[in-house]
Amino acid sequence: MTRLYPQDDFLARIRILSPAEGGRRTPVINGIRWDFAYAEDGEKPQLSAIWPDFCDASGNSLASDAPLPTGTALLARMWIVFAAMRVYHRTRLQPGCAFYCHEGARRVAVGRVIRLTGLQT
């Protein structure tokens, strides 16, 4: 299994927003370094460095040189970049938890946690 990041903390489904929905105007490729926000935090969320590694059903990372589709739910392994934040996210993340991916103030993707993986350890 190939991976972009050293570990994953949870598995999620992410739908990249189209430009018409307010998403990016340029293509997204695997390896993007978005910020993460909990949907329940409302209009002024606290952003965290949690990065997606989009993968196929076998767990292999998707190519990092080809655009990802918009409007389709994609599987992603999620990595909490700063180890010190893992304790905080353990108290908030659970299967079914909704979240957004941001580039600055712009919301560019929506997602939902499927299951916790490395975050449990």
Topology:
Blueprint: E1 10-16, E2 35-38, E3 50-54, E4 73-80, H1 86-90, E5 98-103, E6 106-116
Antiparallel strand pairs: 1-4, 1-6, 2-5, 3-4, 5-6
Describe this structure in words.
With 121 residues, the chain is mainly beta. The protein is 4% helix and 34% strand. It contains one helix and six strands. The chain has a six-stranded antiparallel β-sheet, with no helix packed on it. Strand 5 and strand 6 (106-116) form a beta hairpin.
Give the C-alpha Rg.
13 Å
What's the total count of β strands? 6
Element pattern in H and E: EEEEHEE
Order of strands across the biggest sheet?
A: 2-5-6-1-4-3
Structural class: mainly beta
End-to-end Cα distance, whole Å, is: 21 Å
| Individual helix count | 1
Note the beta-strand portion.
25-35%
- Low-confidence spans: pLDDT under 50, at least 5 residues? none
Broad shape: globular
What's the mean pLDDT score?
91
> What's the helical proportion of residues?
under 10%
Largest sheet: 6 strands, antiparallel
Short précis:
This protein is mainly beta and 121 residues long. The protein has 1 helix and 6 strands.
Keywords:
single chain; mainly beta; 121 residues
